[in-house]
Amino acid sequence: MTLALVSLLGIAFNAAGQTSGASSTPPAVSGVIGEVKAIDAGAKQMIVRADSGVLFTVNLSDKTQYKRMALGQTTLTSATEITLSDIGQGDRVWARWRPGADQKTVPSAQVVVMSKADVAKKQEQERAEWRRRGISGIVAALNPASKEITVSSRNLMGTSQSVIIPVTDKVMIRRYPPGSIPRYSEARPSKFEELKTGDQLRALGDKSADGTHLTAEEVVFGSFRIAGGTVTAIDAANNQIKINDLQTKKPLTIALRSESVLRRFPQGGMFGGGPGAGGPGRPNAAGGTPPASGQGKPSPNQPPTGSGGAGPQGGGPRPGGGGMNMADLLERLPTISINDLKVGDTVIMSSLQGSDPNQLTAISLVAGVEQLLTMVAARQTAAGQGGRSQGVDLNGSFGGMFGGVGIP
Predict the structure, then answer these.
(1) Which CATH number among 3.10.150.10, 3.40.50.720, 2.40.50.320, 3.40.50.360 corresponds to the domain 129-222?
(2) pTM score over 0.85
(3) What's residue 45's pLDDT?
C-alpha cells in the first residue's frame, strides 16, 4: 500500500496542475501516508498516524477530493470518487498537499483511501507469499568480494541449514532502525556493506533446486538479540516481567510494549508434525487466538507489513530438508497476553538491548519452551556441541525470530 501510494506522488501532483517549469524546492513532506485514527467532520479534520508513528492533523475543506483505491490498483486512473463519510477509522490514507503548501494550516487537496478490509486482505496475501517463498535466519557469513550472504538456521530436527544469497542491483535491501521494534514500514534502504554477522535476516525470492541458494528480490535485516530465561516475577500493571537469564544466570527485566507479540508453546510439544497448535502466527490472524490486555495486538499499519505491504514473516519448509526452522515454527503459535504468563515459565525472545544492560525490550516472546530447550540441548550433546538447556545456542537455534509490527 505504501509503495503504491508513493508511486502516485508525481502523477497526482502533475494532475493537480503543477507547473512543469517551476523551480521551487519541494517541501520535506509533500504528503502523509498512514492510518486514520480519528475523524472530526464538524471541524473538518482528520488525525492520521503516519508509518513513522507521528500523529498528523490533516485539515480538510469542501474542495478536498476523496478517492478510494481498490485492492491491486497502483494508479488513480480507476480510483472511485467518495466522500468524507465513506472513510473510517483504521483505513489507510494518503493525504497530500500541493508542493510548497503549509500543511499545518492549508487543507489537504486530496485524500486517497484504501479501506481497512482491503488492507487486511492484501496483508494476508503478502503473508502467504512470504511464507511460501521466504527464508529466515541469522547472517552466518559475508563475502564482500562476491557480495554473497550466507544465512543459517536450525530446523526442529536440529539440522543446521545454510542458504547463500547473492546480492545484485536487483535486490532491495532494507534495515530496521537500531533499538526499535521492527515495523516493516519503517525499515530503511540499506546496502550490503551495512550487514554484519549475527544480524537476523529474512529474504524473499526463488530457491534453487537443491535449496542451497536463493535468488532474492528483497532482504530485510536488523540487529536483535535472542535471550531466554525463567520467569521470576510478573508486573502486569507496568507490562514487565523479570527472568533469570539462561546463559548469564543474572536477573533481567523484560519490558513489553503494545507491539510485543507473546505466544505459548503447547503442552506436550509439537514434535509429531507441523505447527498444528496455532494460527498463521500473527495476532488475530485467522485461526489464531486473539490477544488480550494490549499484548500482541495487530497493527492496521501492517502494510505491508511488512512487512510497503510485503514483509518477511513465518514460512513453510526451508531449504536443506528437515522442514521449517525453529523461528518459523514458533511464529505460527497462537498469541497470548501477559496475564497468561506464569512464574516458573521458561521463555525465549527476540529483544532489543537498551542503555541499561539489565533490561531488554521483547519483540517476540514464546513461553513454555522447557521441553523444546531440553530437546535441543540433548541433540547438541549428541552432536558433541554442549550439555544442558542453559548451554543451548539460542541465536543459532532461533535466529530469525524477530516478529513485530508490520511484518506479514
Answers:
(1) 2.40.50.320
(2) no
(3) 93
